[in-house]
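Dear colleagues,

For the upcoming journal club I promised to circulate an example of a predicted protein-ligand complex. I picked one with zinc ion because it came up in last month's discussion. The inputs are reproduced below in full, followed by the predicted structure.
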Amino acid sequence: MSLQTITFVSFGAFDRELLEKTAEAVAEEYHCAITIRDGHIDLSEYFDAARRQYNGNALIKVVQLLSFPESDKTLAFFNVDLFVPILTFIFGQAYLGGNAGIVSMYRLDNKRYGMPKNNQLLLERLIKEANHELGHTLGLIHCKEPLCVMHSSTYVEDIDQKSRHVCNKCHDEFLAKQNSHQNSGGS
Ligand SMILES: [Zn+2]
Ligand SMILES: [Zn+2]
């Protein structure tokens, strides 16, 4: 089975080690290879002054247009408050079975909730969010299994309740999709 190649693009000031550790965990989960790049866009264009948040739908379109020849999917990391019109905020979003996803660290950080800094918890949440959004791009939908990383999360506490892994059912589905992708002439 050939390896999927994923590009992580970091927009904003990120602790490199945090992204590297996230990449390591995601590569392990989906048996893929991950390259980390720095992205440069003017985020002020995506700021909604009325909501004082950044438009997730507009940003994911930008990410989709960033194409890296060596890479199948692009997951972009932000550190700003993201929204989509129908929701108060989002941790991230992705195109189902597509090639782009976005994740924001903004609401994953304990300091947003007036709690003490906890880098290990932040890393764990970031890994779960990255695995979740990448799972969508790999064709996985939300899962009812509470421990599955594809279980949907509204609040940060929901993220803490689930594991960083896909459940057996989602894992089988992921493998089946990989195989059908290859049989239909994909890489
Ligand atoms: Zn989701
Ligand atoms: Zn599942």
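Two points we might discuss: The domain at 4-179 is CATH 3.40.390.10 (Collagenase (Catalytic Domain)). The mean pLDDT is 92.

See you all on Thursday,
B. R.
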